[in-house]
Give the backbone structure.
Amino acid sequence: MALYSDKVMDHFQNPRNVGKMDDADGIGEVGNAKCGDIMRMYIKVRDGIIVDCKFNTFGCGSAIATSSMATELIMGKPVEDALKLSNQAVVEALDGLPPQKIHCSVLAEEAVQAAVKDYYDKNGIEYDPSLFKPMHNCEACEG
Ligand code: FES
């Protein structure tokens, strides 16, 4: 069996929504201290809906594939739904990732959450902090 699914290979080789967004409403940047990969997620929000989303990832193929899939999963969705996007949902949408690459999907989840938080903060929108999961990025984690 191939290590990576066709979907992972497709999103790695033809990533969707890559690039910078100059007029983003929210920008989230996260990194994994262990592997050194960095992911930046941009969202544009109109009437509570994510109408555009882009990402820049300096990282491994799985990080690129998971960021690409994450943008597809949150595009056109309410901001609150993006906040609920789990790394497991991203992995499932990609038809799986090898166990040693699961942490790459965590980075995608965190980048989306960081972008939403930035959007809330910039617009003075109150939110329940418990909706945000604690970041996983620490030297101690198995990342
Ligand atoms: Fe670091 Fe994939 S190896 S995010």
Notes: The chain is about 40% helix and 15% strand. The longest helix spans residues 102-122.
